[in-house]
Design goal:
Strand content: 15-25%
Order of helices and strands: HHEEEEEEEE
Shape: elongated
Mean pLDDT: 84
Structural class: alpha+beta
Largest sheet: 6 strands, antiparallel
Number of strands: 8
Radius of gyration: 18 Å
Strand order of the largest sheet: 1-2-3-8-5-6
Distance between the termini: 31 Å
Oligomer: single chain
Low-confidence stretches: none
Helix content: 10-25%
Number of helices: 2
Length: 183
């Protein structure tokens, strides 16, 4: 609730602080969604100056357009999932910086704030699982990374995102026989 500095909140893009919006998106919105929350509340701060609209004087929402686009991208990814059937899945990955949800044997979704090549524990699960990567900033369709699919029954490497830059990605892993995802 109300992440960031209370004086600035979600900074206007013309303000020198607007890059902090990316940090809020990363630390709050994506991690919240990936842990099962319904979203995050954005506010505009009480010290925003230069006609850029704070909490009490907001008139031009386009001043924060990039942040809204990033939030729409996050929503787009999570709307592909059967959220009501998923649980916390953090314990199934190899990285402490991986946050996600799982429906065992069906679909797994993780936010990787620092990129990397996570492993996923598919012990006790059968079938073949497709791997799709989602660009957190740009949105769009799921993309194939260095590993296209893995078999259940063990701990499997999900490979690297399409551009292994160490940047943020979300990854979805699904059993094609049990889940149909719009890629």
């Amino acid at each position: 609730d109300e992440p960031g500095n209370a004086g600035v909140g979600l900074a206007a893009e013309g303000d020198g602080n607007w890059q902090s919006n990316h940090a809020a998106l990363r630390e709050v919105l994506w991690k919240s969604y990936a842990e099962g929350a319904g979203g995050a509340e954005w506010y505009f701060g009480y010290q925003t100056a230069n006609g850029q609209g704070g909490d009490l004087a907001m008139e031009d929402f386009s001043l924060r357009e990039s942040a809204y686009e990033w939030a729409a991208s996050a929503r787009e990814f999570f709307e592909k999932l059967p959220l009501e059937d998923m649980r916390d899945g953090d314990n199934l990955t190899s990285s402490a910086e991986t946050h996600g949800l799982a429906q065992d044997g069906v679909v797994y979704a993780y936010y990787l704030s620092d990129g990397g090549a996570p492993n996923l524990n598919l012990n006790g699960q059968d079938g073949t699982y497709k791997i799709g990567w989602y660009d957190v900033i740009e949105g769009g369709d799921l993309q194939m990374g260095t590993v296209e699919d893995v078999a259940g029954g063990g701990v499997r490497s999900l490979g690297q995102a399409p551009t292994a830059t160490g940047g943020e990605w979300a990854v979805m892993v699904w059993n094609e026989a049990r889940f149909d995802v719009d890629v």
